[in-house]
Amino acid sequence: MPIATVNPATGETLKTYEALGPEEIEQRLASADTAFAAYRNTTFGDRAILLGRAAELLEEDAQDVARTMTTEMGKPITQARAEVAKCVKAMRWYAGRAESLLADEHPASTDVEDSGAREVRVVYRPLGVVLAVMPWNFPLWQVVRFAAPALMAGNVGLLKHASNVPQTALYLEDLFRRASFPEGCFQTLLIGSGAVEGVLRDPRVAAATLTGSEPAGRSVAATAGDEIKKTVLELGGSDPFVVMPSADVERAAQVAVTARVQNNGQSCIAAKRFIVHEDVYDAFTRHFTDGMRALRVGDPMDENTEVGPLSSEQGRADLEALVDDARQQGATVLCGARRPEGRAEHGWYYAPTVLADVTPDMRIHREEAFGPVAALYRAPDLDEAVRIANDSRFGLSSNVWTRDETDVARFVRDLQAGGVYVNGMTASHPAFPFGGVKRSGYGRELSGHGIREFCNATTVWQAA
Ligand code: NAP
């Protein structure tokens, strides 16, 4: 895959980049290693000043960086600006909280005595150089979500970003440099995915985090496993959105539209499978389909656009193949399932689509639909809703709509997912852990869980 900015709204190649050669990669590895030796000894206060400055600079750059993201991957400009704001918030959150999140822990005195010690404490020390392999869909957020806690913990970062967002990747390196992070603390490697294995096997790299597809995760985890290096994987999702009879159905349908088409439908935590109790199925389906049909599809730079193009021609072809397969196997098209009129020739647009009568044999039931395509299911009761929801190899997040607390308790107990969002849609927040189970990956980002992933929890035991 060439490293290039190709505008998905027009198909035009705007800028191409040469991948780094072996010597340049070596230079950056050496620089990261040298940086870590000193940076690990900085205080939380020092790091908070640097990260706070990065947040300020990012806030100043908001308009420009939002336009860069929209140009590179096609998200509506309003959503790009919201992504910048979210990154600023997460940077400030970690700058302010890292010290308390990584404060020494003191086990219970009875356990300390029982071990024969005078004092025991657990200290969190940084691991070292962490390689971050990141996707294009939230080109700023995915990186900041890793970088803010990793840098606050005293680690240093090497970013291998997706090949279609090189300008955002270079912007991030420049941002941390301008914020005065010491040289080598955060570097962007413009490399193809084929060069990841070599970097990960380098003894100077301590760990890796990957956000992306299942095959990419499998490949990085296999190499890391071979090298016995820690990994965090944030992979795909096909989140269920369950609607029960006690729900506010109109509101649920309204939120369902946003939950499905946010980021042009290309979000890991977008709701993708809509499982509706039969008592409210017809009402929900009507409101939901009306909402999907009414979406404004268009130029992502236009302030009024709600759905822009998919990020690549291949991405659209993959989505079309999923829809065609479902249709051939008997799914009913309630809206969409085509390229929008007037936008078929330029740019990789796809009309918001609702498919009903989806069955387990269809690819869309098993695979992640990465675009504005919703699959509808009818469930006779809660047990069947839970069964359909869990009938997926993914387990990222889940959304449930009900006013019945007994239902909520059942969903929380039984849904196989890293999150259960009740009467709302999944949205990450710096204070709450984020991540999945099953093929959606392992490990957690954000919150105290996220910052501890790349720390060495060290027991310090002192004899009585
Ligand atoms: P992708 O093709 O897996 O790419 C992600 C990153 O991995 C890119 O930097 C890519 O580099 C690299 N990569 C691809 N194959 C690789 C390999 N074999 N070895 C090493 N690196 C490899 O995914 P994407 O299309 O960019 O992103 C969409 C996927 O990410 C979806 O499945 C989505 O659900 C998932 N995602 C998950 C989360 C989460 O938090 N769980 C968040 C966002 C997205 P190149 O670009 O050079 O190929």
How would you sum up this structure in a few lines?
Helix content is 42%, strand content 20%. The chain has helices at residues 22-39, 44-60, 62-73, 77-101, 109-114, 141-152, 166-178, 196-201, 214-227, 249-261, 281-293, 313-328, 363-366, 382-390, 405-414, 447-453; strands at residues 3-7, 12-17, 117-126, 129-133, 156-160, 186-188, 205-211, 230-234, 239-243, 271-277, 332-335, 353-356, 373-379, 394-395, 399-401, 421-422, 437-438, 441-442, 455-463.
The unique ligands bound to this protein are: NADP nicotinamide-adenine-dinucleotide phosphate
| Outline type | globular
Percent of residues in helices comes to 40-55%
The CATH architecture category of the largest domain equals: 3-Layer(aba) Sandwich
Describe the biggest sheet?
A: 7 strands, mixed
- CATH secondary-structure class of the largest domain: Alpha Beta
- Which structural class do you get from the secondary structure elements? alpha/beta
What does this structure look like?
This protein has 2 domains: 3-235 and 440-463, Aldehyde Dehydrogenase, Chain A, domain 1 (3-Layer(aba) Sandwich); 239-429, Aldehyde Dehydrogenase, Chain A, domain 2 (3-Layer(aba) Sandwich), CATH 3.40.309. The termini are far apart. It is α/β, with parallel strands linked by helices and 464 residues long. A hairpin with a 4-residue loop joins strand 1 (3-7) and strand 2 (12-17). The protein is globular. Helix 2 runs antiparallel to helix 4. The strands form 5 sheets. It has a 7-stranded mixed sheet with strand order 11-12-13-10-9-15-16, with helices on both faces. Strands 6-5-4-7-8-18 form a 6-stranded mixed sheet, with helices on both faces. Strands 1-2 form a two-stranded antiparallel ribbon. The chain is built from 16 helices and 19 strands. It binds NADP nicotinamide-adenine-dinucleotide phosphate (NAP).
